[in-house]
Amino acid sequence: MRRxxxxxxxxxxxxxxxSIWDDVATRxxxxxxLYSLHLRDERPVDEVDWGSVMWHLRDDQRLxxxxxxxxxxxxxxxxxxxxxxxxxxxxxxxxxxxxDPGGILQSSTLSxxxxxxxxxxxxxxxxxxxxxxxxxxSRRRGSWLPDPxxxxxxxxxxxxxxxxxxxxxxxxxxxQRVRVTDGPSKGRRGYVKELGWAVDxxxxxxxxxxxxxxxxxxxxxxxxxxxxxLTASRDYTWPRRPTRSLKNNPDSSDLRQPSPPPPSCxxxxxxxxxxxxNAQIVPMELREAAQGAYEYQGAHLDRQAAPRPQRxxxxxxxxxxxxxxxxxxxxxxxxxxxxxxxxLQDDDPIRLLALDEKAVWETIATRAVPR
Length: 371
Prior knowledge:
Layout: H1 2-7, H2 21-41, H3 50-57, H4 60-70, H5 74-77, H6 89-96, H7 112-122, H8 149-168, E1 177-180, E2 189-200, E3 205-216, E4 223-226, E5 230-232, H9 265-275, H10 284-291, E6 295-306, E7 312-322, E8 332-341, E9 350-354, H11 357-368
Antiparallel strand pairs: 1-2, 1-5, 2-3, 3-4, 6-7, 7-8, 8-9
Helix pairs in contact: 2-3, 2-4, 2-8, 3-8
């Protein structure tokens, strides 16, 4: 924990904050990589190479394989009651648990009166044993996601370690101003967008930074530039820089273009039907009514997830078509869409339609039941 906490000290947010969910998850991810490599390679934690840590943090499955192969009881901890676990196994289960983005908000930053009011409002209709949102911590990013911290934060942890490696090797930091000294873009200035690494999969380590992704002034496309073709630079054009921009780029004509018209109700319905796996359940009369509707609205109703070993996330969407021209006595046609994923980065989600709320929960129960 100590070495992981020190690594966070150089981040833009100003270091580790024990009350922030993002910081706790990022620190714990780094700490488990350090601890597991310490056990696997039988060397002191302070001698574990940052390059090896970063290699295992480039993908959450790599970290899972490392930890559950090196830390005794890590895999079994996922199906053990938290009260029965000791550190570090309780922290491993915490990294792998899922969350309720609509859970009861309990924060140490709220006054006692405010906390009571929030709990009364958000606790209506929830079971008495409902767990607090984010374990009582605050969350900066992705507060709508129910997915495990190990999936959400492992890339953040890799960036923290990468910044540490770059600092130790006298490299450049993200958002640092640089000037190109050689190559096609020689003489141009910009700022560092990403750090690039030489990856050695055989040795399970990374070296570098070997290069950088640079956002150069007056160019729309990002450029990959070798580390030896850059030098540190200063920015003398700040007064002329567009608002909320880190680069000097006066061409903002696209921002003044009118927005395209919204799709029609028929086009919206067609888009929904084309992306789901069970469009055949929608009766013809409902299709015809929706195609001739006066207005379409889409809404996100809920996001939930189940942890490993039955890892699954689901999102419920509501597609509403207003069938009457007047709002005085409106009638609506509704379709529910459930999106199932096995991972935060799942590129092939399963999308299913349901015609009513009962069918929504029956569909979710069928897929979320442990197998």
